[in-house]
Amino acid sequence: MEELDLLKKAWQKDTHSFEQVTEVEIYKMLHRKSSSIVKWILVISLLEFGLWALVSFMFNTDDAIKSLHAESFEIYLKIITYVNYAVVLWFIYNFYRNYARISTTTSTKQLMQDIIRTRKTVQHYVWYNLFMIFISTLLGFAMAFIYNPNMDTLRYQIEHEDGYKTLSITICMVLITIVVFVGLFWLFYRIIYGTLLRRLNANYKELKKIDL
């Protein structure tokens, strides 16, 4: 924000008339930067949606279900998939609305409100995705455990041998794997969306100073 810092220094040193002009210039700059950040949030969410859709298309879950003879899971997976697509598209629509609002707003207070709204939408979007990753991974492990022939030995040990010990170890390993997997996605979201939100929050703080 070098350009913004220069304007603020000039604002503090010069006359009252220049102060008014500088305030307008600072607002315009923050407005432009905020609009650009929200546009990138929209673009990244669209790219992410497209990537997941491509992965889903390339990896045919129906074939995997049939190969495992896990048809009873098919209806649940389809429901989760359709609901997930609908929810993600709803978030993307809200990102677009936030971008449209910020691009056309003309007041400092309204821009601040739009920034707060955008931050909440992104935070809800990230937590929703992490929740869905957790649920999907858990279902994947459950389906593999119940239907995968490679799990026959493990299932036999749980049912006929040291069941409690083997089951406890299995559950711990599954939970650790899920936590690591979800944690990697959390790190990805923190780097990508977190960086954009921090910049947006910095703009909000500067606008708050102007609005005083």
TrEMBL record:
The keyword Transmembrane applies. Keywords: Membrane, Transmembrane, Transmembrane helix. The chain crosses the membrane at residues 37-55, 75-96, 125-147, 167-189. This is Uncharacterized protein. It comes from Flavobacterium cheonhonense. The lineage of its organism: Bacteria, Pseudomonadati, Bacteroidota, Flavobacteriia, Flavobacteriales.
